[in-house]
Amino acid sequence: MKIDLKYGCNPHQIPASLTLPDPSPLIVLNGKPGYINILDALGAWQLARELKTVTGVPGAASFKHTSPAGAAIAGALSEDFRKSQFLPEEELSPVATAYVKARGGDRMSSFGDVVGVSEIVDVSLARVLKREVSDLIIAPGFETDALEILKRKKNGNYIILQVDPDYHPPEIETREIFGFRLQQRRNDLQISKDHFRNIVTNNKLLPADILETLLVATIALKYTQSNSVCVAFDGQVIGMGAGQQSRIHCTRLACDKADKWFLQQHPKILSLNFADGLKRPDKANVVDQYILWDQLSSPEQNALLLKLKKKPELLSNEERLNWIRKFEGVCLSSDAYIPFRDNIDRANRSNVKYIAQAGSSLRDEEVTQAANEYDIVMVHTGLRCFLH
Questions:
Q1: Which of 3, 14, 64 minimizes the C-alpha distance to 224?
Q2: Which residues pair with 183 in a beta bridge?
Q3: Do 226 and 243 contact (CB within 8 A), yes or no?
Q4: Could you say which of 65, 151, 249, 307 is catalytic?
Q5: What's the CA gap between 343 and 325, in Å, rounded?
Q6: pLDDT of residue 207
Q7: Residue 387 within a domain
Q8: Are residues 286 and 145 in the same domain?
Q9: pLDDT of residue 118
């Protein structure tokens, strides 16, 4: 079966198509996907499904440009997190909380995302998606009322894909680039708790909830363009550093995003007085800029003040550091070994206390010593999860 796609990676790349197995495990219920939509949908679905398979908890992924902007498993939402995400007071189903957490990990990057969830989409999740800027959802099924809500999204053009949860692809995958055909065994590695037994630091205490969060981070890396480093907290990704050519740049990017996630919940941020009529994406941009106030030019600062009813009280560096230090159980995972201690030094500034990495670097001893200096628990998984 062959489906014509809207276009390829860019609008001028026409024609573009998708060839499906027979019988097809994928059904287009609404909208017309493009090439990148399909790439993101397949990545989001695999990630969400694997999160559920490994943890037993509903999983969700928010994908953009072939990497997860966020990923999470279902769980309770704190009041501060709800406020920081401008969420209305409403009861959410488990799959809806999984997606809210996934999208809230990096809401700037999740703007216009592709959503993947491990569960049948219910009305609770459909109502959440109705108010978000999103391009596509892929799921194993949809409640009738939920499907009707989503079909009305984006003037009827919201892309809705249904996938067979029991479909498993062939062992060998093929890719053609520039007229050259590559083949490899699909990355069907099943990441499990057994990969986190080799604790190499002096501190060897790894609580069950921390192990679950490390699993979420490591599974997310499996579907992230390499090099990549992931920071996670309480079962959700809060900082993804993807597609960088050096690991320290991945770590800096992931930790910077995590810092921003923490600071979004600071009382001074939650008390920002927005100008009347400001929409949720605009409020998110205001918060993002406020956190980076010292890095803004005078014209940028003046433009920001126009979106607030009064000039806010700024956060000092000491306040930022003390606030981030309040969050216990911050985890970091790397898709390959950590080659230098500078990654550990940067992770410590974001209050990371648990690290998973492949190990087997020439500088393992130096990196482990750095972790010991900060009383960080570090695991050598023996896994490399590159994706290109």
A1: 64
A2: 174
A3: yes
A4: 65
A5: 18
A6: 98
A7: no
A8: no
A9: 98
Quote the number of domains for the chain. 3
Check whether residue 328 and residue 282 sit in a common domain.
no
Q: Containing domain of residue 8, as a range?
A: 2-163
Proportion of the chain in helix, strand, coil states, percent, rounded to 5: 40, 20, 40
Structure-block tokens of residue 78: 């704190």
CATH of the domain at 331: 3.40.140.20
The answer to whether residues 281 and 111 touch, using CB atoms and an 8 Å cutoff, is: yes
Closest CA to 269 of 205, 314, 325: 314
- Asked whether residue 108 falls in the same domain as residue 93, the answer is yes
pLDDT digits (tens, 9 = 90+) for 45-79: 999 999 999 999 999 999 999 999 999 999 999 99
Confidence tier at 312 by pLDDT (50, 70, 90): confident
The predicted model gives 219-247 an average pLDDT of 98
With cut-offs at 50, 70 and 90, classify the pLDDT of residue 311: confident
Q: 113 and 219: one domain?
A: no
12 is catalytic: no
- Annotated active-site residue 227? The verdict is yes
Catalytic, out of 30, 227, 343, 348: 227
Considering 2, 168, 310, 388, which one is annotated as catalytic?
Answer: 388
The whole-number pLDDT of residue 245 equals 97
**Annotated catalytic residue: which of 30, 37, 64, 351?**
64
**Residue 69 phi/psi, 5° resolution?**
-75, -30
Q: 341 by DSSP, 3-state: which?
A: coil
Q: Is residue 386 part of a domain?
A: no
Model-level pTM greater than 0.85?
A: yes
Same domain, residue pair 19 and 146: yes
289's tokens: 């800029």
Same domain for 251 and 137 = no
Residue 386 three-state SS? coil
Question: What is the domain-level CATH number for residue 292?
Answer: 1.10.287.440
Q: Are residues 17 and 63 in the same domain?
A: yes
* Domain-embedded: residue 175: no
Residue 113 shares a structural domain with residue 62: yes
Please report whether residue 207 resides in a domain. yes
Residues 346-367: tens digit of each pLDDT: 999 999 999 999 999 999 999 9
Q: Tens digits of per-residue pLDDT, 189-210?
A: 999 999 999 999 999 999 999 9
Q: Report d(CA 276, CA 283) in Å as an integer.
A: 11
